[in-house]
Write a structure and sequence with these properties.
The chain is mainly α. It has one domain.
Length: 117
């Protein structure tokens, strides 16, 4: 399958999960890019972050239209998150890849346990 179709498939799955569960970027895109398409971890994370901007705009707008999202509250959460993204991105550049992978795997396991319990 050509790379463009593979990326489109990753995006479709991420969009579906984003719409259903409010997740998509880190939980879906990063593992699919890294495991299925062989992207390096940092490149997968960066690609995911770029895609999230598009996904979040579309999903947030639709959810606001349905009356499920308050744009003011979203901004109160979102703008400080930009500070976190800048700090996290800077920190990520100094952490070994193996540590990033293990940390990400641990995060997914903890979230899964919390959701099940």
């Amino acid at each position: 399958m050509p790379r463009t179709l593979q990326l489109a498939a990753v995006g479709t799955v991420a969009g579906l999960f984003s719409g259903l569960f409010g997740v998509g970027g880190g939980v879906v895109i990063v593992p699919l890019l890294a495991l299925a398409l062989g992207y390096p971890t940092r490149v997968a994370a960066a690609t995911s972050l770029a895609a999230i901007a598009v996904i979040a705009t579309a999903a947030g707008s639709l959810q606001a239209i349905y009356g499920n999202a308050d744009p003011i509250e979203a901004a109160v959460v979102g703008f400080p998150a930009v500070v976190g993204v800048v700090a996290g991105t800077a920190l990520q550049q100094h952490i070994p890849i193996r540590t990033l992978r293990l940390g990400f795997a641990a995060l997914l396991i903890v979230v899964a346990i919390i959701l099940v319990v």
